[in-house]
Amino acid sequence: MAEAESSLDEAASSKQVKMLAMNIRDLMPEADREQALAAFREQCRAGVLEPQRTQRIAKDGRTIEVSLIASELVNDAGETYAIATTERIVPV
Known about the structure:
Layout: H1 2-21, H2 33-46, E1 52-57, E2 63-74, E3 80-89
Antiparallel strand pairs: 1-2, 2-3
C-alpha cells in the first residue's frame, strides 16, 4: 500500500513540475495568441482581477472556452517576471 501511495506521489509531483514549466503561449490558439497576450498585459498593468473569457487548447487538441483571472508576479525591484493565471472551463 505504501509503495502505491509513493508511486502516486511521484506521478503527481512530476505532473506539477511539467505544469510549472509550461508557457501560457503553448495553450493558446495561434490565431488569437498576440491579442490574448496583449489583453493579459493590460489587465495586469491595470491591476484588474476580473474574469476574462478566452480559449485554450486541451490535451486532446480541442479548443475549449475558459474563464481566467491573470495576476502579475513582481520581484523586489518591481519588475514583472511572470504572469500567473487561474483558469476554469466554461460549461457548455
